[in-house]
Amino acid sequence: MMYTCGYWPEGTASLEQAQRNKIDHVCRKIRLAEGERFVDIGCGFGGFMFRAAETTGASGVGVNTTTEQAEWLQGEIARRGLLDRLSVREADFREVDAQYDKVVSIGVLEHAGRDQLAGVVRAHADFLKPGGLGMLHFIGHVGRYDTELFIRKHVFPGGWIPSLAEVIVEMERCGLEIVDIENLRRHYALTLDAWAERFQRNWGAMRALDAARFDERFRRIWLTYLIGCAEMFRSPAGYTHLFQIVFSKGNVTRDGYPMGRAFLYAGTDDARGGSHGR
Can you give the residue range of the structural domain that contains 142? Predict the structure, then answer.
């Protein structure tokens, strides 16, 4: 139930593993640790929250605008016995309730709309304590381009893909220091390959749910989206990428963040020569 790009270092064998890799990669990047409190902006079904709590011991709050997801997630938190460590707020992500040690948003920025970029980035800054670290994971263009009409019309109405430069400008305006930028474009191609294969494998079960809704037109639209976007991210000539920006509220110090990237890959497949996503 985890949306957006997985992380596929060499040896990754499944979509589930790629998504766990992605969450662990984010947690390492923001140095999430036991005793800290994080906010997951646009938390979906809580995949990041559950994995982060399990592996780091941190506690967190998810912000979600979708009633059905928020209700399901609150029930799942209770079922897992994590009410003392995790919670979910049904709210617009610009409704800042507190400041946290760490801030994460994974695949939210591009869904906010053309005129919302400044407000969304400002919310990330407002959620973060001075000296804290955050992660902004989003699809972005290199250069200024319109989002593809097909995707805007059929898949993500109202969505808009900003340029990396536009995002950086807004972060600077909010007083955020950019600590690191990584491009996971090629990893998204592999994620979309896996989604397309599963979509086709499960098409019969989907049709059985509602044959009128899940008709041949629906099937063709979504296969076009999944396969077409996989090739878009795979192409070396493409201008659509997947960025992870690590940012700080205030400048990091020598003691506040490692001086090199070795800590990101120690003990992982990447440290043994796998893909770093560059």
Answer: 15-185+237-251
Q: Give the containing element (helix H, strand E) for 129.
A: strand 128-141
Nearest to 116 by CA among 93, 139, 91: 93
Number of domains into which the chain is organized: 1
183 pairs with which residues across the strands? 243
Let me know if residue 206 belongs to a domain.
no
Within-domain flag for 115: yes
Amino acid at 113: G
Can you tell me the distance from the alpha carbon of 243 to that of 57, in angstroms, rounded to the nearest whole number? 26
Note whether residue 221 is domain-resident: no
Going from the C-alpha of 114 to that of each of 89, 109, 151, 152, the distances in angstroms are 25, 10, 14, 12
Give the pLDDT of residue 270.
Answer: 60
CA distance 224 to 217: 11
| 117 in Cβ contact with 162 (< 8 Å) | yes
Q: For the whole model, what pTM was predicted?
A: 0.92
pLDDT of residue 94: 83
Predicted pLDDT at 277: 39
| Number of residues that make up the chain | 278
Instruction: From 33, 49, 124, 120, select the one nearest 87 (Cα to Cα).
Output: 49
Question: Is residue 60 domain-resident?
Answer: yes
- Using 50 as the pLDDT threshold, list the residues of the chain that sit under it: 272-278
Assign residue 133 the CATH number of its domain. 3.40.50.150
Q: Could you read off the pLDDT of 197-251 as tens digits, one per residue?
A: 999 999 999 999 999 999 999 999 999 999 999 999 999 999 999 999 999 999 9
User: Which of these, 249, 230, 252, lies nearest to 240 by C-alpha position?
Assistant: 230
What residues are labeled active site? 229
Residue 201, SS3? helix
